[in-house]
C-alpha cells in the first residue's frame, strides 16, 4: 500500500505557474487538487504553465521567473516531504475499488464507473452516480488538452444562462460548486489525466498519464466527458483581448453589455458562423462576417437568411490579421482583402470565432465510432456509444448546442444509463449464479449436453 498526500492549493493568479512547476517536481508523491474559484490564471501565466507542463523545458521567460519558481519549488517540495503542509491524508486504498481484479488482468483496483473529464457533464454524472452509491471515480485532468480542471467554464468570466443563478455567476465559481457537490456525495476525484484506454474488452483498461508502462486500472463502465475546445486563430492581440471582446460562443457571450449596439465581427463561413451572426444581430449595431473564400459553406437556407439580413455585411475573400484595442477592450480588427491585397482597420467591439471546435477524443480514437468531425457518436436521445459500457456526455459528443446546461443534462443521462447497465448485469449474474446452484449441470455446458 503506497501512501500519498492529497493537497489543496490556494494560489494567486501570479503564482499559479510556480505551484504547477512545484507539483510537477513532486508529482510522484503528491496529487494536487486546485481550487480554482475566483482564481483564473491570467492568460500569459496559463500559457506559461502549459509550456512548463507539456514540454518540461524552460519557457522563454524562464530566466525572469526562474528564481521564484526554484524557490517555491524547493520550499513546496521540502514542506511536502516533511508533511508540514496543510493536507488531507489519503491512501491508495481509498480509491473506491469495486474489487481487486479477479480475472488475472490486473492487480490494480477495479471501479464500477470511471468518469474522464471535469466539466458540467462529468460532474453531473458524478453527482448522480455518487448518490446512487456507485462510488464513481472522476479524473479531472491536469491541464488536459490545455484546459484547467473544471473545463471550459473556468476560462470565462460571467455565466448568465445557467438556471439557478439569477444574478449570473463567475465561470470558475460555478465549476467549484459542481465539484463541491460531486465530492459531497462521495465522488473520488483525482487531478490527473487519463492518457490511454483499452476498450477492446470489459472491464475496460485505463492508464493515468506518466503511468502508461505500469499495470492498468480497470473499469466496468466509463463515461467520456472530456469536452471540446474552440478553434482559435492565434492572431496578434488575441491573447490580450480574449474574453475582453473576443469569444468563441455568441450564444454564451453575445448579450453582455460591451457588445450592445456595437459593431461585431464573426469569422467563418459555415452553418455555425451563419447562426452566430444571425444571433448577434439582436445585440450589435451591425455584424460583419469575414469569409476567406468567395462563397459561404453554410446550407442554402442559412446563407440566404444571412445574405438578406439588413444588419449583416459579408466580407468575402477577407481574412483577419490583428486584434487591436485600448489595452482593456477590443476596438478594431485589422483585416485584409486577399484578392486586392488591401489592408484596413474595421471597427469591432466584438470578434466571434465560428471556425469549429476540436472534440477531445484522441483517447478513444479508432476504438469507438466518431463522426467526420471527430465527435463521439451516440444513439440519439441516449449517451450510449458504439462500445457497450462506454458512455459519452457533454461537448465531446455534441457539436450542435455546446452549452453548460446541455452538457449537464447529457451527464445525467450517461449516469442513469451506466447505472441501469450495471444493475442489469448484476441481476443477470445473480440469476446465473442461482441457476448454477440449483441446476449444477447448467453451470457446465458440457454436462448440460451443449
Ligand atoms: C469562453 C467560453 C465561455 C462559455 N460560456 C458559456 C456560458 O456562458 N453558458 C453556457 O452554457 N456555456 C458556455 N460555454 C460552453 C460550455 O463551457 C461548454 O459547453 C461546457 O463546459 C462543456 O462541458 P463538458 O462537460 O462537455 O466539458 P468541458 O467543459 O470541455 O470540460 C472537460 C474537462 O475534461 C478534462 N479532460 C479532457 N481530457 C481529459 C483526460 N484525458 N483526462 C482527464 N481529464 C480530461 C479537460 O481538461 C476539461 O477540464 C462557454 C465556453 C467557453 C469556451
From TrEMBL:
Top-level enzyme category: oxidoreductase
Region called Disordered, residue ranges: 428-450
UniProt keyword terms in alphabetical order: Disulfide bond, FAD, Flavoprotein, NADP, Oxidoreductase, Redox-active center
Reaction(s) catalysed by this chain's protein: [thioredoxin]-dithiol + NADP(+) = [thioredoxin]-disulfide + NADPH + H(+)
Cellular component aspect of the GO annotation: cytoplasm
Record GO terms (molecular function): thioredoxin-disulfide reductase (NADPH) activity
Entry note: cofactor: Binds 1 FAD per subunit.
Highest taxon above the source species: Eukaryota
GO process terms (BP): removal of superoxide radicals
Keyword presence, Disulfide bond: yes
Record bears the keyword NADP: yes
Residues annotated as domain FAD/NAD(P)-binding: 112-411
Cofactor: FAD
Pfam family, one: Pyr_redox_2
Membership in a protein family: Belongs to the class-II pyridine nucleotide-disulfide oxidoreductase family.
PANTHER family, A to Z: THIOREDOXIN REDUCTASE 1-RELATED-RELATED
Subunit structure: Homodimer.
NCBIfam families registered for this protein in UniProt: TRX_reduct
UniProt name for this protein: Thioredoxin reductase
Natural source organism: Meira miltonrushii
Amino acid at each position: 500500500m503506497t501512501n500519498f498526500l492529497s493537497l489543496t492549493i490556494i494560489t494567486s493568479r501570479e503564482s499559479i505557474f510556480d505551484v504547477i512547476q512545484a507539483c510537477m517536481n513532486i508529482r510522484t508523491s503528491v496529487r494536487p487538487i486546485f481550487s480554482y474559484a475566483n482564481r483564473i490564471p491570467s492568460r500569459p501565466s496559463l500559457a506559461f504553465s502549459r509550456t512548463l507542463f507539456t514540454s518540461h523545458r524552460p519557457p522563454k521567460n524562464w530566466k525572469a521567473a526562474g528564481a521564484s519558481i526554484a524557490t517555491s519549488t524547493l520550499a513546496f517540495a521540502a514542506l511536502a516531504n516533511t508533511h508540514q503542509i496543510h493536507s488531507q491524508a489519503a491512501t491508495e486504498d481509498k480509491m473506491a475499488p469495486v474489487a481487486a481484479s479477479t480475472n488475472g488482468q490486473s492487480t490494480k483496483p477495479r471501479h464500477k464507473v470511471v468518469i474522464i473529464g471535469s466539466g458540467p457533464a462529468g460532474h453531473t454524472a458524478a453527482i448522480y452516480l455518487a448518490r446512487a452509491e456507485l462510488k464513481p471515480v472522476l479524473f479531472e485532468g491536469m491541464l488536459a488538452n490545455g484546459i484547467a480542471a473544471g473545463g471550459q467554464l473556468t476560462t470565462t468570466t460571467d455565466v448568465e444562462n445557467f438556471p439557478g443563478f439569477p444574478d449570473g455567476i463567475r465561470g470558475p465559481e460555478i465549476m467549484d460548486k459542481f465539484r463541491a457537490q460531486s465530492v459531497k456525495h462521495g465522488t473520488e476525484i483525482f487531478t490527473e489525466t487519463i492518457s490511454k484506454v483499452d476498450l477492446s474488452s470489459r472491464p475496460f483498461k485505463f492508464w493515468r498519464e506518466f503511468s502508461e508502462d505500469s499495470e492498468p486500472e480497470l473499469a466496468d463502465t466509463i463515461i467520456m466527458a472530456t469536452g471540446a475546445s474552440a478553434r482559435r486563430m492565434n492572431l496578434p492581440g488575441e491573447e490580450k483581448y480574449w474574453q475582453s471582446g473576443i469569444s468563441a460562443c455568441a450564444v454564451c457571450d453575445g448579450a453582455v453589455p460591451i457588445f450592445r449596439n456595437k459593431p461585431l465581427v464573426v469569422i467563418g463561413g459555415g452553418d455555425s458562423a451563419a447562426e452566430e451572426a444571425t444571433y448577434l444581430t439582436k445585440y450589435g449595431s451591425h455584424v460583419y462576417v469575414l469569409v476567406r473564400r468567395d462563397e459561404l459553406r453554410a446550407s442554402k437556407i442559412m446563407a440566404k437568411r444571412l445574405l438578406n439580413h439588413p444588419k449583416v455585411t459579408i466580407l468575402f475573400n477577407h481574412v483577419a490579421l490583428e486584434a487591436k484595442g485600448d489595452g482593456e477592450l477590443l476596438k478594431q480588427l485589422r483585416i485584409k482583402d486577399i484578392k486586392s491585397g488591401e489592408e484596413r482597420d474595421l471597427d469591432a467591439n466584438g470578434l466571434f470565432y465560428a471556425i469549429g471546435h476540436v472534440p477531445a477524443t484522441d483517447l478513444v480514437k479508432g476504438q469507438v465510432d466518431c463522426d467526420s468531425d471527430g465527435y463521439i457518436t451516440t444513439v440519439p436521445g441516449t449517451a450510449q456509444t458504439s462500445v457497450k459500457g462506454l458512455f459519452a456526455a457533454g461537448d465531446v459528443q455534441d457539436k450542435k448546442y455546446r452549452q453548460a446546461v446541455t452538457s449537464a443534462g447529457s451527464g445525467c443521462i450517461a449516469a442513469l444509463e451506466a447505472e441501469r447497465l450495471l444493475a442489469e448485469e448484476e441481476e443477470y449474474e445473480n440469476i446465473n449464479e442461482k441457476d448454477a446452484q440449483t441446476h449444477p449441470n447448467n453451470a457446465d455446458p458440457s454436462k448440460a449436453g451443449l
